[in-house]
Design goal:
Elements (H helix, E strand, L loop, with lengths): L2 H18 L2 H16 L4 E5 L5 H7 L9 E4 L10 H8 L5 H7 L6 E5 L6 H12 L4 E5 L1 H5 L21 E4 L7 E3 L8 E3 L1 H22 L15 H12 L7
Parallel strand pairs: 1-2, 1-3, 3-4, 4-5
Antiparallel strand pairs: 6-7
Helix pairs in contact: 1-8, 2-8, 3-8
């Protein structure tokens, strides 16, 4: 391993350790998620910007993941529909309510994933969740938001940060600038960590949710890989249960 790869490895391991220290907030998020499942409601999950959508993919119909997840994957912010288009739409105030309407985001709990936590789509989603009376969980980086000027063009007009608006805030500890590896005579850092820290945080939330469900004697609805023996049969039961309520299923 080169010293640059070691630099990345050390940075990632340190960040994962910081996320593990968020035990209280992870528990609080999982409590909302487990109670939602017990009530037979949906966990709505939205990544409010380009690469933040990867967090939604990580939660949605994923082997080892929770069944009642409504993956809110709107074409407007997907990079596959155009990276510049995605960047422009995530900065457009007023877009989020229509997306939540399109994916029938009512009741349950709403998880908002955005490591940066400052753009218009992110803040409007949090505000709309509150307006609809839906408990919100924000997975974001406080240190990033706190270090970006209130008048930065990427920000929501309010200048607010995601962590300030949600009912439960889980810090993914993404560092300022995202990338962490430095090369001599190269002005920009390379090797971003946001996808790694978001996925790790989200899966810790899933793990704790399953633990709480088992603690209450409730069988957790979990996807099994369709590539494993019996996986398709197990998945068919979840599909039958949730197909009419989860738009992208």
């Amino acid at each position: 391993m080169t010293r640059y790869a070691e630099q990345y490895s050390k940075a990632v391991h340190a960040l994962l350790g910081q996320i593990e220290s968020e035990e209280r907030s992870i528990h609080d998020a999982a409590k909302l998620m487990s109670e939602t499942i017990i009530r037979d409601e949906l966990i709505h999950v939205i990544g409010t910007g380009g690469h933040s959508n990867i967090g939604t993919y990580e939660m949605f119909m994923r082997a080892g993941g929770l069944g009642p997840v409504n993956g809110v994957l709107d074409p407007g912010t997907l990079l596959s529909m155009g990276a510049l288009r995605s960047s422009r739409i995530e900065r457009t105030p007023g877009y989020a309510p229509a997306v939540l309407d399109a994916f029938n985001v009512t009741g349950g709990v709403l998880i908002i994933i955005n490591a940066y936590g400052i753009n218009a789509m992110t803040i409007d989603t949090a505000l709309e969740g509150k307006k609809r009376g839906i408990p919100t969980i924000g997975v974001t980086s406080r240190s990033f938001g706190d270090n970006i000027p209130a008048d930065h063009p990427a920000r929501h007009p309010s200048g607010k940060n995601l962590y300030q608006l949600v009912d439960v805030f889980v810090d993914c500890h993404m560092p300022l600038g995202d990338a962490v590896v430095e090369f001599e005579n190269v002005p920009a850092r390379v090797a971003p960590v946001s996808t790694l820290v978001l996925s790790y945080t989200l899966n810790l939330m899933v793990i704790e949710t399953v633990r709480l469900l088992k603690e209450r004697g409730f069988e957790p609805p979990i996807w099994t890989s369709g590539n494993m023996p019996g996986g398709q049969e197990a998945g068919r039961k979840l599909i039958e249960k949730y197909r009419s309520r989860i738009r992208l299923l």
